[in-house]
Amino acid sequence: MKVLFTIVPESVAGGVYITEKAFLDDLAAHPTITIETLRYGKRRDGESLVGKVLERFVDLWVFRAKLRSFRPDVVHLNSALDAKAVIRDVPFTYLIAHSGARLFLKWHGTDVRLVRSRSFYWRMMLSFVISRATKIGVLSSEECRNLDQAGYDIRKMAVVK
User: Fold this and answer.
1) How many C-beta neighbours within 10 Å does residue 72 have?
2) How far is residue 130 CA from its own chain's centroid?
3) How far apart are CA 2 and CA 72, in angstroms?
4) Looking at the whole model, is its pTM more than 0.85?
5) Residue 43 — very low, low, confident or very high, per pLDDT cuts 50/70/90?
């Protein structure tokens, strides 16, 4: 199995690199799993808006090339359920869906206001991302309940620590 694992750089304070490193090492040690990692998201604290937008376009371009060259079976996308992350994740999930890979989306925290939003715009984008994920990891059963109460497909959710 080939897994493309997205990860924030070690330089980002409190980044998931610290929490995901042991999991990534365990996967890499498995003889039937081939891991590729890809830098994804914030590069450093204090990014300017222009720099952030330009770097996310570069991320998308590099991600597209990696999907084509590596051809993963699974993409492990580290993200969060907040407005900026959902906007960023829409084109990434589109590319994953069209690559044939399965998507495991891991949300590190949830903005409950976004989940409960009645805005057509936010619900459409969130539904788009959720519908393309094979499974979604959230950090608590409360996050699962919030998504369920908002009408999202709870069968896709799993509480992961």
Assistant:
1) 22
2) 11
3) 5
4) yes
5) low
